[in-house]
Each structure stands twice: as C-alpha cells, then as structure tokens.
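Q: I'm writing up a methods section and want to include an example of the input and output format. Could you take the sequence below and give the corresponding predicted structure tokens, formatted cleanly so I can copy it straight into the document?
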Amino acid sequence: MKIPSRYTSPGVPFFIPSTETVPTVQDIHTALQSLAPDTLAEPWDNVGILAGSPAQPVHRILVALDPCIALAEQAVKRNCDLIITHHPIIFRPIKALHTNTPVGAFLAAVIRAGISVIACHTNLDSMAKGVSNALAQGLGLENIRPLVPSAHSCADQCGLGSIGTYPHPLPAAELIQRLQRFCAPEWLLDAGNRPESISRVAVCGGSGSDLAETALAQGAEVYITAEIKHNVARWAEEVGIWLVDAGHFPTENPAMPLFVQHLHDLLHSRTWTIPIELAEQEAPLRLLWSPTGS
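A: Here is the clean output for your methods example:
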C-alpha cells in the first residue's frame, strides 16, 4: 500500500485513519473529545496520547487512576492494548528515559507489550460529569455546579470542583458518614469550625487546597478536598469555614467506575464493542498510627 506523503512528512506521526470496525488509539482519543476534551485541561497539564502508536487497533481497554508498574503488569495480564489513566505518566519534560526509574520502567513495559497510554487528567476533572461532580453526587448534593467554571464553552456545565446544596440542613455527623461510605478513606483530617448542620458543600477531588477561598466566597460551610496546606488550615480557623481532608486517592478514585460507564456509552454510540475494565488499585498512603492505636 502506498503511504500518502502527508503521513510521511518529517515531524508528522505515521497515522492512517481507521476504516474498519475495530477502532485505533487515535479513534478512541478523538471520541474522548466529546466526553473529556483536551481543551478542558489546565495549561500546565499533559493529556492525550502519551505512549504507543495512534494507529494501533484497540481490542481491550484498562482504566485506572494512577500509572505505575503494577498497572502495566495488570494490562499485560488482561491482554489490554490501551490504558487510560487519570494521572499522566509523563507530567514534566523527560530529559532521559532510564528503565530503572518508575516512569521509565512503566513506559518500557507498555511499549514492549504494544500497549498505548492515554491520560485524561484535568480535562476529566473539568468535564460535566467529572471527578468532583462524582464526589458531589456521591454525597447526595443537589443543584450541583462547578466551583470554578471552565473558560471553554461546554454544552453542559464544566469546570474544576463542585458546589451544591441539601434541600434540608444535614447534620455534620451524617455528612461524614456519607463521605466514609462513598470514599472509604484511610483517615479524615479537618480544620476550622465544625458546624452543627450543613446546607451548602463544596468539593474538589484530589489536591484542591488552593480553592478553599473560592469555596468560602461562594457560601460553602464545608469544603471537602485533599492535601490541605498548613497555612490554609490555619486560615480556616480564622474565617470560620470547615475543611475536611479525605485524601487524594479516596476523593478521586470513586469517579473511575463512573468514567468507565461514560466511556462504555460513548464507544457503544459509535458501534464499537470493546471490553473496558477497571484496574485494581489501592490508596498508596496508609494510616500508620492513631491516638487510639487502631
């Protein structure tokens, strides 16, 4: 077959559009633009096809929060040829690729096995049914909207974080019980004044300490996120908002099964019947000690 010159020009990846019912990595990435478009990603982020061949046919997909060597091993064992992660395996520019490092070992393993990798990071955070929206839904909030609306136009509401309300004030203890059931965190940390009852809650799955002031400005009585900074915790004591830190992995991972379902529906709408599996992952941080010794 003669390759058109536009696919063989210097600096242009070799890619022939798929004409068969089995989609390619590029086909999957293109389809994702209607669900979690790359344009929703923050300017500092790195999303899209990060490893592998865009022209590779896709027969089985593995979805996970974190790219790590154990994930690559799962993908090989399950005969997956595409991994879609939330966190990007390549985040900062790589000056050298050494296979005795976690990033190098992961990339070497997937490339050796013919597995491609797509990252959906802050674009998955900001999509209308993204990470924080899943957390807000899991806590039973209503009238949910983005905490920081996206600058990009969306058919639905897009943006970072979520804020919503309860139709009737919810006791703080009940909110914590809902958080424990939905996120199953190893621990919960809090700062600021704990109210007796709560009507408006802001959330941001993952590291969202920098949005605490935004949550307060929008009337949230509690802000649930992860990796709350020391100075932000001290600030909360002064301004009266209640901050709850439930951990990075626990506040994001519950969105992964929902993303699998959204992805399944998306591919089904294009008549692509591809198994999509959810990887087995656990939070990397564990509670080592508590005052009760538990």
